[in-house]
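Handoff note, outgoing to incoming analyst
You'll be picking up this chain. Sequence as last confirmed:
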Amino acid sequence: MFRETPESPRMFESDVVDFFSRVHWATVPALYVPVSVFCAWRSWANGVSGWSVAGLFAIGFFLWTLAEYGLHRSLFHWRPAAAWGERFHFILHGIHHDFPMDRLRLVMPPAASLFLLFFVFGPLFVFGLGATGWALLSGFVVGYINYDLTHYYLHHAKPKSARMKKLRAHHMSHHFAGLERKYGVSFMFWDHVFGTMEDPNQARKPHAPRG
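Most recent structure output, in case you need it:
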C-alpha cells in the first residue's frame, strides 16, 4: 500500500484519491509498452509498410521530445491568476519541486497520462492521420515511457555514462538553480533551440567591465 510519509506527503483529503496520486515507476512500461506495440501493429495491419512504420515511429518519438519540453515549460509551470491557481500548480507539478525525492510521484499517474492519451494525443494522431497516425502514436508513447523512466532515473540512480551525468546535472539545475530554464528532461536539445539553457534573468545582467 502507498501511504503518506515525510518524503511523500498527503495531497488530498480523500484517502482513495491520495492513494492514486502515487504510482510505482514500473507501472509506466507495464501499461504503455503494450499500447505502443498495439499502435504499431494497427498501423501495419492497415496497410502501412514495415519500413514506413519504423520511420513514423522515429518521428513520433521525436515529436514526444518537443511535447515533453512544451508541456514542462508551459503547463507544468503555469500558475493561473485565480484563487485556485496555486493549488492547481501544486497538484500538477509544484509538489514535485517541493518534494523532489518522492519516489512515488516521479512518474505521471495513469489517470493523467491516460487522459492525455485518449482525449488529446490519441485523437490528434489517429483521427487526424489515420493508419500512419497509429505508427506515429506508437513512437510518441515510447518517447513518453523514456521520459518518465529517465526522470525517475535522474532522481534516484547514480549515472555512469557521461551523457546521463550531464543530463542529471541539467535536470538538477532546473530544480535547484532556476525554474525558468532547462525544461528538457530526457533530452536537452529543445533547450538549445528555444534559448532556455541559461537563466533569462542572469542572461540580461551586463558583464562587469574589464580593467
